[in-house]
Amino acid sequence: MSEPANPSTLLDTLVVGAGITGLTLAFDLQQKSSGTAHSAKVLVAESQARVGGRIVTASGDGFLWEEGPNSFAPTPELLQLAVEVGLKDKLVFADGKLPRFVYWQGELMPVPMSPPAIISSKLLTWRGKLRAFFGALGFVPPAMADVGSEETVASFFERHLGREVLQRLVEPFVSGVYAGDPRQLSARAAFGRVARMAEAGGGLVAGAVRTSRQKPKTKVTPDPNVPQPKRGQLGSFRQGLATLPEAIADRLGDAVQLNWHLIRVRPTERHTYIAEFSTPDGPKRVEARSVVLTTPTYVTADLFDPLHGEIARALRGFVYPSVACVVLGYPTSALKRPLNGFGNLIPRNQGIRTLGTIWSSSLFSGRAPEGWNLLINFIGGTGDPAIAELEKDEIVRVVHRDLLKTLLARDVDPKVLAVHLWKRAIPQYCLGHHQRWEQIDRGLQEFPGLYLCGNYSDGVAVGDCVRRARDRAAEIRQYLASATV
């Protein structure tokens, strides 16, 4: 007969990983149980010496920059979280009217964001515009699924809007968000909202109208304490994105433990889980009623090897390409033009290796000294795995050479602020994505109280991580309320 759990040391929830997902989830569990009869016992265990995961903010020489995500779409859940942890006055928003650019045939061209802009845009030819117009109205050839019932992003958009839209708008967008290949990504997984419009029938325009009519018409009264940014704005904090995870960790206090490396986790006969850690103070063993793994799939797969081989295999089906974030400062006098915009993306057929450049000092004030511009460049991705083999100096030379074509008027040595190589950067939502998740979900039914929560499921943006964490926290509260030990 197994030894009963000790209620004085038993955790309600163990959260593995102190990225924005794990921190948000733990904070939600603690906050919504405070003042109740049972205050949730939560522990967040992080293998690194800092919180934030892929969110990395750094500063030096009068510059402030990001080496992971650079900003966020101000979703209601994220803004609410910022207010709850006391950051309302530290929020900053970029002007939503700032243009985005695509580098095409030696010229930076603004991305058309409205029907009149599409008509006047030089980025698409008249043939390309007409093809996109008739495709959006529903004059679309039938789908030819690439795998099973799935269609790639490339096939989907070329079928609906034509080759020009695919090459000049969709491909660079995919490079900017996923650092991925539209010929490998699943349209239904990577562009779910657009795919659902198409499934609604009658073309993308009619599908958009139908899906909007199907949304609940309940009127939500905005919280007066939560900022209401304008359409198209992107957000950050005065001292960078790391402000958010650090503020959440401060609220959680001793519930966050750093340099705790999870070795194994196993279920017990008493419907709890035992987790074993390597820590600076030696081995630690904790018991919890529920466990949430917010770790990347390649880490999570190793933990599942002794538990469930099918889940481990499905997790190993996710691909993470290497991406280098190259942060460079240039004097304003060296630029071809004033950088009044969000940045530029570069289609893969333009002979330029860099994926794109964020004009960071044009987005948010205080990111560069007077007379300087801060450029955050991304290079690598699915189509360029060799980037991981280059020395940092060589990566800088490649990016600088590309900037001489796109943004620089003259050759001047950059101020190299950072070269951060993410060897496993962004999870790819490739064909078979939903089938992998169905396989994982089936396997997890054998482990009640054990949850996965990561950016490899349904959205890679910071706002997606916050939304997903709060949804998962609600599930865990329901489980804990019904489960007994």
UniProtKB/TrEMBL annotation:
Pfam families: Amino_oxidase (PF01593). It comes from the Bacteria. GO terms for molecular function: oxygen-dependent protoporphyrinogen oxidase activity. Its main location: cytoplasm. Residues 210-234 are annotated as: Disordered. One of its GO terms (biological process) is heme biosynthetic process. Residues 20-476 form the Amine oxidase domain. Involved in coproporphyrin-dependent heme b biosynthesis. Catalyzes the oxidation of coproporphyrinogen III to coproporphyrin III. Belongs to the protoporphyrinogen/coproporphyrinogen oxidase family. Coproporphyrinogen III oxidase subfamily. This is Coproporphyrinogen III oxidase.
